[in-house]
Amino acid sequence: MEEKRTVRAVERALDILLCFRHGREWGLTELSQRVGLHKSTAHRLLATLEDKGFVVRDEATEKYRLGLSLLELSANLTLPDDLSTVLLGEMEKLRDRLGETISLYVRDGNERVRIQAVQSTQAIRRVAPVGARMPLFVGASSKVLLAYAEPEVREAVLNDPAWPASLDREAFVRQLEEIAKAGYATSIEEREPGAAAVAAPIFNRSGRLVAALAVSGPSNRLTPGVMRKYAPVVMEAARRMGTMLG
Amino acid sequence: MEEKRTVRAVERALDILLCFRHGREWGLTELSQRVGLHKSTAHRLLATLEDKGFVVRDEATEKYRLGLSLLELSANLTLPDDLSTVLLGEMEKLRDRLGETISLYVRDGNERVRIQAVQSTQAIRRVAPVGARMPLFVGASSKVLLAYAEPEVREAVLNDPAWPASLDREAFVRQLEEIAKAGYATSIEEREPGAAAVAAPIFNRSGRLVAALAVSGPSNRLTPGVMRKYAPVVMEAARRMGTMLG
DNA sequence: TGCATGGTTTCACAGAGTGAAACGCGATTT
DNA sequence: AAATCGCGTTTCACTCTGTGAAACCATGCA
């Protein structure tokens, strides 16, 4: 048994908050059984969260939603200011040039998180919100993030219990090495049917991998040929963005 | 004495989180005395927050920063998907047309929160992050949000203990009425020296005020004359954005 | 070497948080 | 209308959990 130097009540409250990854609105009873707490306990915790503005109750439905305290905090997130504004400019330029949705991903544990995005202007387009969290197994950005990661990170992901049985580790590792050589990765309908993407790594000045820049769209528009043409453009944008970082 | 139906430990943990409004990085001791907790208590709470990904420790400085759980949550914020994507499109159009920074504000209690923004492309420009929180006393957006608010909201703000003594309530209320007639508000160096703004209300389909749309920039570029010219453009954009909402 | 200044761990105690149960209330059903 | 359900809210006795003083480690600095 592990020693526990954490606070149970707080853990529970945060668990409640994290439920809002999976849905916008929750009723008390719903929430309480999802996190396995007694109604009355959940009620007390929610009252506290509400007090501090982390959740609000929808006037109409009486259900709980996330509050604006979170927005305020996310403004001060790890990413330096410039990352959200300066890099955003570059991303918009790239979007205007290619016409597809542009995303920025960082690795967080054995997952990747979309920390910034600009949407395609076309009618048919991928939509994924900033903050979305995805596995590191599939997708162009995943492969980029792994191809340049430290060996121990790669190992951790390969040994993740969630690793899909259908995916051959050997072949995957070989693919990563090719990607490391080529400087970019592509994916076609790996994670999401009908979608494709090209991604390139962003290194900071000291040469450490900090993020992956991705262009994504419908796979009938982003054909292998088109993606091969886009790759240098994406890599160049990623390089320029890298020089903007500390 | 009030009855308390909240959980102390959770309150404290959230207070710690809220410190990150005022700074990106905090050491343990720093934090603990800011929230008035014993070092050891703060330590335990932070360990819990870290466990759930709400804070992380900067590798280099050993200090605490916000974690990515927050980003993930803020993606699921109250605002429906469309608000962050569809409206964003309109905001970009407006930015491209006027060349200035465009912001979207909602009221939260007696303050306003910037929930979305697109930055000016010009070299000299205002920068304010999404999530920023400002008083409802000053600024074009504040006046718009108050001019169309329910009377009790207006009262609450006028009686807020933080109301600046230098600001005449009578004159302010009169100004609000004019704004309600005109359909837009302007401000020149009210909140921030050297800055000016034009703002218009966004109503949803059922006619309820939901947000304020603002164009802001340096006051030598946004002169009264220029702003008068921009006003109809902003109002028109706000109207169109309103029709996009439920 | 001593002295700050940060973070970490220990431990005995008190009171804070817990959850079963009872309650209230509105919408549905009988 | 009475009965029944599905919600959220409140109460209360008990116990387990969170607390904070103090001791303990690492550092960097004089």
Structural class of chain A: alpha+beta
Major β-sheet annotation of chain A: 6 strands, antiparallel
Number of strands of chain A: 8
Oligomer: homodimer
Written overview of the protein:
2 copies of one chain form a homodimer. The first copy, chain A, contains 9 helices and 8 strands. The longest helix of chain A has 20 residues, at 224-243. In chain A, a hairpin with a 6-residue loop joins β6 (185-188) and β7 (195-203). The first copy, chain A, has helices at 8-18, 28-35, 39-51, 68-75, 81-98, 140-147, 151-158, 169-182, 224-243, and strands at residues 55-57, 64-66, 101-108, 111-118, 133-135, 185-188, 195-203, 209-218. The mean pLDDT of chain A is 86. In chain A, the strands form 2 sheets. The first copy, chain A, has a 6-stranded antiparallel β-sheet, with helices on both faces. A two-stranded antiparallel sheet of chain A has the order 1-2. Chain A binds a DNA duplex (30 and 30 nucleotides) through residues 5, 7-9, 27-29, 37-41, 43-44, 62.
What attributes characterize this protein structure?
8 strands; 9 helices; homodimer; 246 residues; DNA-binding; alpha+beta; 44% helix
List the helices and strands and how they pair.
The structure is a homodimer of 246-residue chains.
Chain A: H1 8-18, H2 28-35, H3 39-51, E1 55-57, E2 64-66, H4 68-75, H5 81-98, E3 101-108, E4 111-118, E5 133-135, H6 140-147, H7 151-158, H8 169-182, E6 185-188, E7 195-203, E8 209-218, H9 224-243
Antiparallel strand pairs in A: 1-2, 3-4, 3-8, 4-5, 6-7, 7-8
Helix pairs in contact in A: 1-3, 2-3, 5-9, 6-8
Chain A binds a DNA duplex (30 and 30 nucleotides) through helix 3.
